[in-house]
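re the bet — no i am not wrong, look at it urself. input seq straight from the record:
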Amino acid sequence: MPGITALPSPWKAQRRAVGSKRESSQNNSYQRLSSNRWRPISLKNSAPPQHVDVLIAHGLLLDQLVAESGSERLRDRIYGRAPRLTPGDFPAGVMAPTDDVVRIPTRPLVIGLVPRGSSAPVLWAAGDAEHVGLFRAAYAIEVKVEPFNREEDLRRALMRGGDHGGVDLAALPVSSVAMSASLLRDAAPRVVMLLGRSRGHEQLVARGVSALPGLAGKRIGVEDRSSAWYLLLWSLSRVGLSLRDVRLVPLDDAYSAGAALRRGDVDAAVGFKGDLEGALQEPDTMVLASTADAPHLTATVLVTRGDFAARYPDALRRVIRGVLDANQQTLRDVTATARVLGTLAPQLGDPVQAISQAPPSTLKDNLDFFGIADEAPVTYVELFTSASALNSKLFAAPPGPEAEDTVDLGPLKYVASSQNQ
């Protein structure tokens, strides 16, 4: 290019080494040795080598060339790409209101869930064609429930948020929240309440295998990072097996386990009990493990985005009240809730049994689970911390957030205090 003198072939290495070392000491330059290393040369009482001034001049010309060219590609090749800014770089509460005006979304609030026993009261409280939902009738808030077949799709919908075609809240297992921290970072997830625990809702079923050690080398079908997947990890740990000792076969969704086992695509499968009942009717097929063996292993919680929690705390209070009321109604009489669940998710089998295998939580269950009152045998902090550590152990993932930074218990405490008055 006119006006710019070509640099000698080793100019890049020289300029990089000289420039970096010049920053560390104003009195030293560096001379290249035959071993491809650099040694300092004192500049006191001596004139600087000519190539230092030449390289500095060429560096200034290079900066000017990039600035005048206006080429993003050239700038990226020389200086590297600028870090991409994301919402997760800033506190989730920056959009919190500064006054006491009650704020709820002007559009329907969207809750996403994979239908299961403990989330059935949320379906009933949202209402359907046959009845006005509890959220609207008792708490004057419009709620739309969006069902999903895959937990991965649900997590991504939470990432997008309700304003962008996703969901405002999601019903997810604690293990999924902890082991997807990097994916959910920009959503700044905040757990606001416990929906329920699994008490036999997930099962590990195998054909031709009579005990857990026999799974070594077998094909096991499971949805990745789901509550069933977490049950599988726990089951393998009981007999000293690792993920390398088995052959995982990813399933399309949460309701594919039974079909995969019946077709012979896998030797064992982990999924919902109702979905696996058909496979259990076949010869030499049995249950090897279930969440009934570990009733505190899997807990489904209601998670919202950090920005939503900051902007609409009153909306969260209304949702929590509505869910707790729906849970109590379900525990008193399961009929109406079971009808809604059976219509939406017939794959779960008998909806009454599905709800009994993952019963909805009470206010006391919530207070104990989060350590606000008495402590449950396994608290949220323990579940989240262990799942996060396991994620790092299995996949060399960077450390996730602290459990205390992933909850917003203000609305739950407000509801608890109002009910105790």
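see?? The chain has a mean pLDDT of 85. told u. also The longest helix spans residues 50-69. so pay up
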